[in-house]
Amino acid sequence: MSIKESLLTIKNELPDTVTLVAVSKTKPVSDLEEAYAAGQRIFGENKIQEMTQKWEVMPKDIQWHMIGHVQTNKVKHMAEYVSLVHGVDSLKLLKEINKQAKKHNRVINCLLQMHIAEESTKFGLDKEELDNLITSDVFKTLENVNVVGLMGMATFTDDKNQVKKEFATLKEIFSSLQSIKSTNLDVKILSMGMSGDYKLAMDQGSTMVRIGSSIFGSRNYS
Ligand SMILES: *Cc1c(COP(=O)(O)O)cnc(C)c1O
What we know:
binds pyridoxal-5'-phosphate; eight-stranded parallel sheet; alpha/beta; single chain
């Protein structure tokens, strides 16, 4: 199937309440242009340098989502244009995003990444760290960031029950946050689900799926 066909097939499966992030990491600009021509306007990348190179050459009505782990010293390169940062997992990073956003007179939308998988290697906050972060005095002073939701990745496993359980846990935390609102906290996006598990994620209440290989084909890392 072509990129266009894959994209339209997946779009057809998503209800209006679920936003599709086309994960184009490692893929050439020509692939992104094909998806753009088919109507896609939200792209996800996991390296700031690669995302910035693509942002420079692609049409300006694209929303760029940083879905990977963010190094504090690289935030400045995307602060001018990034539309959503999915992988925020520390107050330190949030403070840096705030600082760089301020330089561009912007408010940058962020998702806090939660650790829901079994693997200890995956980044993210646990519930206690999340509570500490959003109730801290420093957080409330960050005027140039908006926390608009949560992101999480399930364990890489064939065990659907486990994946379902992890997504359900994240959805529960998400729901518990929705009643708490402050000037820079308004939780409405739940980013969960990738090519292998987005249907399970949608069943558990995902509002945003990040899909790469099912649209663009498998990635070759060299
Ligand atoms: C690469 C990546 C995806 C997309 O993965 P696919 O399995 O290709 O759909 C989604 N989320 C994150 C955080 C990723 O790094």
